[in-house]
Every structure is written in C-alpha cells, then in structure tokens.
Prior knowledge:
- The complex is a heterodimer of chains A (223) and B (476).
- Chain A has 223 residues and is α/β, with parallel strands linked by helices.
- In chain A, 30% of the residues lie in helices and 22% in strands.
- Chain A has seven helices and twelve strands.
- In chain B, the strands form two sheets. In chain B, strands 1-10-7-4-2-3 form a six-stranded parallel β-sheet, sandwiched between helices. A four-stranded mixed β-sheet of chain B has the order 8-5-6-9, with helices on both faces.
- The longest helix of chain B is centred in the N-terminal third of the chain and has 21 residues, at 25-45.
- Chains A and B meet through helix 1, helix 2, helix 6, helix 7 and strand 9 of A and helix 2, helix 3, helix 4, helix 8 and helix 10 of B.
Amino acid sequence: MSARDRILAKLRAAAPSTVGAQPDVASWYATYRQAESASEKAKRFRHFIELAHAEVHSVHAGNWLSTLTTVLRNKGLDQILVSEDTTHGCAVLDELPPQGFTCQTYDMGIEAWKSEMFNATPASLTAARAAIAETGTLILWPDAAEPRLMSLVPPVHIVLLEALRIYNTFHEAMTAEGWANGLPTNALLISGPSKTADIQQTLAYGAHGPKELVVLMMEEDAA
Amino acid sequence: MSQQPLHFMPNDGFRDRAKSVVENPFLRQSFRGAMDFLMSKRAAQFPDPVELESLRSLGEQIRQYNLSRLPELLVQLESNLTRNGVQVHWAETPEEANAIILGICQKVSAKLMVKGKSMVSEEIELNHAAEAAGIGALESDMGEYIVQLAHEKPSHIIMPAIHKTKEEIARLFAENVPGVEYTDNVDALIQIGRNVLRQKFLEADVGLSGVNFAVAETGTLCLVENEGNGRMCTTAPPIHIAITGIEKIVEKLEHVPPLYSLLTRSATGQNISTYFNMISGPRKPGEKDGPGEVHLVLLDNGRSQAYADEQLRKTLQCIRCGACMNHCPVYTRIGGHAYGTTYPGPIGKIVSPHMLGLEATADMPTASSLCGACGEVCPVKIPIPELLVRLRTESFSAPKANPAMRGQGAGHRPLISAIWRAWATVYGNPGVYRAVSWLTSRFHWLTPRRQGGWTRVRTPLQPAPKRLRDLIKEKH
Lengths: 223, 476
C-alpha cells in the first residue's frame, strides 16, 4: 500500500457518517456586507489602499498618459516595463519614448533576461482585472501579455484600474466572475506595496516585492 | 534562549526553559509588548461583536463541513491539481516528506532552495534534511531569515523573530552579512535583507512554500503573505514545491473569503494581507514566467490520529492565525521557545501530541491555567480548553485505556492516581468525609513542611485547626 492509500484508508475508516450542511456563505455576505454605488465603492477602495501606503491618482482616458509621465518624473524614473500586447502598453510605447523615457517590453521568456529583470528594471505598468472596495484590493490575473513577475520584481509597480470594475467584496468578485469554473495559472490580490513588521513589530515597506504601488484609477470622463 | 539548539525537545527541560524566560525581564517585556500590540490590533479589526460572532460561526461551519468530507475532498483536490499539471505527493511521516522534496531537488541537481514561510516545513525539519543532503535551504521571510541566521527556531507561528530586539538583529546582520555595517534602523535592516535575498530569488533552483488553503473544486493553492517573498518563491525559480498538512482543504472557492478574512484580522489585525496568491498550475505554453514544475506534498504526521476522534478532530479546524498564543497568559510569559515544539502556545499544546506522541508532550496540556482566552478568540471556534482537558485525561489515565492515542498514559503515576481515587472516595461519602476531616484538623500539626513541588515557591499547605462545621457549631 502506498502512503496515499494508507492515509486515505485511515481517514475513510474514521470519517463521520453524516456530512454537515453546505455552509451558506452567500447569505452571510448578503446580511453583513452592503452593496454600494459605484462612487461609494471607488471611495472605499481608495481609502483602504491609501491606508496601506499605495498612491492613487484619478485619471481619465484623455490624461492618464500624462499622469503616468508625471508620476515617473516625480520619482526620478526614466524607464518603464510595459506589455507590447495590450492597448495601454502600446499607448505607452507610442507616447513615452519621444518624451525621453526608455520602455522595456516583456517579449521573451524570463530565462533569457532574468538578471536584467531583477537588476535593471525599476518600474512596470500593468492593468488590474478588477478591484475590491471592502479591503482596498487590486485583482490581477497575470497572463502571457503581462506575466507574473511584472507586478512583483520592479520596485515601482503602476497599475491601471477601471473604476467601474470595483466589486464590493472578494466574495462578490469571485462569484460574479465565475472563478470556480476555472482559474488562470496564477490569480493575485494585491493590497498595497510589499511590507513587513518582522523586526520589533515596526512596519517597513519594500520587503521583497514593490516598494511603491501606484494606482491610476480610470474614471468615466471627468472632463 | 539565544542559542536555541535545533531539533524537537518538548518534555525534556520544558520547566527549566520556561523558568529561564520567566526570570528574564527583557524577554518578558518583549513578549508582553508584542502580545499587547497584537491583541489591540485584532480588537480594532472586529468592532462589531455581532459580525465577529456570526463570522466565527461561519468559519467553524466551513471548517467542520470540509473536515467531514476530508477523504473525498483530498481525492478531488488531487485529481483537479493533476489535471492542472501539478504533481501531487503523499507523505505519512516527516521523513517521507523530506525524501520526496529532496528527491525532486536532486533530480535537477539543485543547489539552492529558497523558502517562503511554511510551518509544515519547520515541522518536518526540512532545513536540516536539506543541509545533510548538500542542498542550501534559505528562509526568505524576513523573520524566518533572521531566525535562521541566528541558528534558532521561530518563537511565534506568524512573527517568527518576535523574541529579538532590533539591536540584536543589527548585530546579527553586521556579523553575518558581508559588507554590512551595524545599523539598528529598521528600514535599513529590511533593505539589507531585501538585497541579500533578491539575489537568491534570482539564483535559486527550487522555491518552497506552504499553503494556507487548498481548494478542491478548482485545484488551487492559496498563499497569504505581506512581504512578496512567497510570490518570489512560487514564481521566480524553475520549480515550485508546496507542502501542506492534509487538513488545510476546502471544497469550494467561495469558502475561502470568510476564512481569509478571519485569518488576517485575527492574526495581525490587518483587514487583508498585502498579497493573496492563488496558484492553479505550472507555466502554460506561451506564458513567459512561472515555474515549469509545481509539486504539492500532502503530509499526515499524526493528523489522521486527531481525525479519528470526534472531539479531537476539532484540532484540525485550525487556520494557523496564532490568535490563541497572542492571547495566552502562559505563552506571553514563557515565549515560544520554551515549549520546544514547532507550534507553541495553545494550538501547539493540542496539535503537538498527535505529531510527537504524548510521551514527548505530556507537559504541554498541563501548561495552561484553562482561563479560556484561546477558545474565546479562536476564529473557527476550536474549544481549546476542552481539548486540553481531554489530552490531560489521555495522558494521566492508566496505560492502554485508549490505544488509538499515541503515548496515552505517558503521564500516568500509580501513586497520584491512587491519591485521587482516595480523594474521590472521601468526598463521595459524607460519613467518611466527616471522619477524615475531623482527623485532619485534629492532627493538622503533622503536615510536613516540605510538600514536593508546591513548597518550592509557596508556603506549605496546612489544614485549619478547626473545621468550618465546628466553627458554625460553636457560634450557635
């Protein structure tokens, strides 16, 4: 008998004969978490992610690129990693190089440029798939266009978020989008820049992931 | 305490270790301060007692429901993970788990394994096994990294280096990290750790992590963390190995949000952690990063023993938040190392006997005042005080009373049992009680001045010269 069979045999011999009722998670959320309007959700999201030390800028389709360049200049950055397979990435690739910025692209497997990614990639831009108001959380589903390390290794991570894509709760996000029917290789919730309180409970930012998290929150045309 | 030898040593010297911490004002102050801080942070996260109670009940129900279906859910998890391309391994013992993990490493001649925080990897003492096999195992969680540099073990399951001051860490870094000068600035210390470990994430052949929740219906491993080292370990190296106890499983993805919320709010008083990392497979064709191989090791190590008993099964509801130790008056006074087990504090006292047997852990269930704080704050309502009493019974009852419990009867002393039996007879029969109490008060001056462990730190017990009933009689 294998370890697997022995473990399962022990558990099966001991398992209770009756199974409890399936927990009613949806009712709990319906009772204890209210559904808010789009503007309330945007406000709550912003409050909590700012509390976690992220920087949030309200932008619209007409000015997000100029906000991005301002953010980069303010941080003394002249280089950014973007995707060449997304519309926002292409927009950056069109607009920023003429203004003196170097744009890196994630156009090959990480093995070919791992050291450059870790040592010479100061900032990146990715989109968020959605967000969660309750906790001030970004939802990212990394893919071939915007791979996993893009939101992790560069010390400054800039995220483009459509304000209309903010859910009330994590539970609402996963049920509304049917996550149970299939998840990508990696799905992420991000609620601020990397941090630790492992030394004398003193909070310090920039432990292993991004030291700074910037959210460009795309609202309906503010103009 | 500073030179904590490795390897488990629960019973041997437990009392001495506890005593040495109690007598160390610096350590006591450090634990007291840290626990007060964590307790107030947790309380601030649960301002509404009604919401807290209902969420705890939901958490308890979710954990009990999933445990009641554990064997079939494990099979479902295995088949969905396998479908997703994750290789699933099973281990009954720590030795088997180490052999599986090191086997995967040796197949690719791995030299360096970077580790995200995993208490199960502490439980199997993976770092030792790896070292013996010539594979470097480097802790990358800041607290774990500090503890490993100091050749110690974590003293808290969530905050491993809680027993160390920043000055101690500053000295440790200055002595051990090449090119680093002494600084006790916390931001600077974290940046030193960051720089050392970034290079290691880049070089490592294998990344190891624990698992907070394994979702059966989707075949997904969920990891909770703040630092990003967990994401590094599971994303940057070419191979990712996850290890978890067999109990950390939920059937449905929607079971995760309530448990996750209970976990971070109870553990560190955060409304959410910085990262929640959900892994459902290795790198797919066309994807540009992520490990090419993902493995999951499912470890039993005594969990099936707890599972076999309806009451003790509740031990497995645990989501490892550490709130029970943060609120424990004993833990706060003796710290995490005194226990000598991987898991300290109240949860350690109820889970370790299943992993190590009661022979090695008979002192654990008695190191409690049964004040009930642990059970009151437990986010999944584990009745920890009840389980402590149950384990005391298992330990002190006559051998062979319950062969299903490893080490049952280890604390049994025939003389003490005889004394308690006599006590029960006296207190169960009014006539005998009257006679015995008359004799004790009459000959109260015969009580010895030395009464074993009692008089080491207390004045001797002495019966009153007159019984209460005699005093009442005199008054009327």
